[in-house]
TrEMBL record:
InterPro entries: Acyl-ACP-thioesterase_N (IPR021113), Acyl-ACP_TE_C (IPR049427), Acyl-ACP_thioesterase_NHD (IPR002864), FATA/B (IPR045023), HotDog_dom_sf (IPR029069). Its EC number is 3.1.2.-. Residues 1-131 form the Acyl-ACP-thioesterase N-terminal domain. Belongs to the acyl-ACP thioesterase family. GO terms for cellular component: chloroplast. The keyword Ion transport does not apply. It comes from Oryza sativa subsp. indica. Residues 1-40, 63-87 are annotated as: Disordered. Residues 307-409 form the Acyl-ACP thioesterase-like C-terminal domain. This is Acyl-[acyl-carrier-protein] hydrolase. It is an enzyme of class 3 (hydrolase). Plays an essential role in chain termination during de novo fatty acid synthesis.
Amino acid sequence: MAGSIAASAFLPGSPAAAPPKSVLGERPDSLDVRGIAAKPGSSSSAAALRAGKTCTHAAIPKVNGGSSALADPEHDTMSSSSSSSAAPRTFYNQLPDWSMLLAAITTIFLAAEKQWTLLDWKPKRPDMLTDTFGFGRMIHEGLMFRQNFSIRSYEIGADRTASIETLMNHLQETALNHVKSAGLLGDGFGSTPEMSKRDLFWVVSQMQAIVERYPCWGDTVEVDTWVGAHGKNGMRRDWHIRDSVTGHTILKATSKWVMMHKLTRRLARIPDEVRTEIEPYFFEHASIVDEDNQKLPKLPDIEGANVAKYVRTGLTPRWADLDINQHVNNVKYIGWILESAPISILEKHELASIVLDYKRECGRDSVLQSHTTVYTDCNKHSGQTTLHCEHLLSLESGPTIVKARTMWRPKGTRPQESIIPSSS
C-alpha cells in the first residue's frame, strides 16, 4: 500500500490505487499515511491529506512540456476526471523505445565483423589455397609469379587425370597474369604497352614440357613462371608446376618467344623501348637444363625399332580456337597432334614429355592434317616397351605448321630419366 501511494504521488495524472475492501465488503472513506482506516469525522486526517497533496503538486512540475507553475488542486481534480478515460501512464511507458536503435547498432557491428573476418582470412589447413581468390601474386622480389589452380571435373580425361591440354592452359594463364600483375599488359595477347603502340605481339617458336605425374580431380597445383632473355630478339619463359600439398614436381616447361607484326604477320626485332620495359623482370634460371636449346631434340637411333605411321585429315579450327590475335591458340595444336596417335597408345600409356617446334601460324580458314610416326622399342634388360613418336601438323596444301616429338611411358610407372628428350 505504501508503494502504491508513493507512486501515485510522484507520477501526476496516474489514478490512485483503490483502497482495499473491508472484511464485510465495505470501502473505508479515507486512509491515513500508515494505511489505517481513519474515522469519518476526523477533520485532522482530511486536513493532513489536503496539505500533503498540495505540497506534492507544488514540488513536481508538469510533464510533457507543461508549465512549471504550482498546480491548483481544484484544477487537478477536473483534469484528472477529464483524462480518466486515457491510457494510464507509468514510469516504463514514458521511456523512449531503444529497441530499434539497439537492433541497428547490432547489425552494423555484425556486418563490420564479417568484413574484417574476410579480410583477415587465413587457411586453416595446408591443403587450402594460399591464394584465396586464385589471382596469383608476385614472389622472389617481383621476378617470379605464382598462381594456384584447382583441377576441375571438366579438365580431366577418361583416365581420371588432368589432360596435357589442361596443364598447358595453366601455363598460358599464368604467363598472361604475370604480365598483368607486373603492369605490362597492353592491348594485345600478352603485349606490353610499347608493343601495342607498334602493333607487335609475342608468338611462341618452341616449347618443351616434361610431365612427372598428372594431377587428379580436386587436386590443387601451384604454378611458378618467370621470363629471361633468349638471344638478341627473343624471350624465354619457364614454368614449374608442383602439388600444392606435397610440393612434388608435376611438370617443368620452357619456351622461346619471338615478336610478330600484327599487320604484316612477319617476325620483327625487339624495339629498345620494349626491351626497357621487360628487362627489369628477367630472371636467368632454367627450369629444364638443355645444353643445346636452339634445336629441336631428335629421336634416338633405335636399331630394330618397329615403325608405324598414322594420319588424320580434315582438321579445321573452330571460332573458339582463335585468340584475340586472330590465330589459333598454340595449345590447340597439341590436341590436333594427338588426334593421329593410335588409341592403343592413349589407353595404355601416358605422355611423359613433348617438344613442339612452331613453324607458322594457323588461321581461321585453314584445313590441316596430322601425321604420327610411332617408334616402338623393347628394352632387353627390363622388358619394358618404350614409345617415341614423331608428329607433323601441316596444311593440306603442304606447308608445315608444327613439328613435334613425344615420349610415352606405361601408365602407373614412375618417370625415368631415359624418357626425357635430349638434344643432339
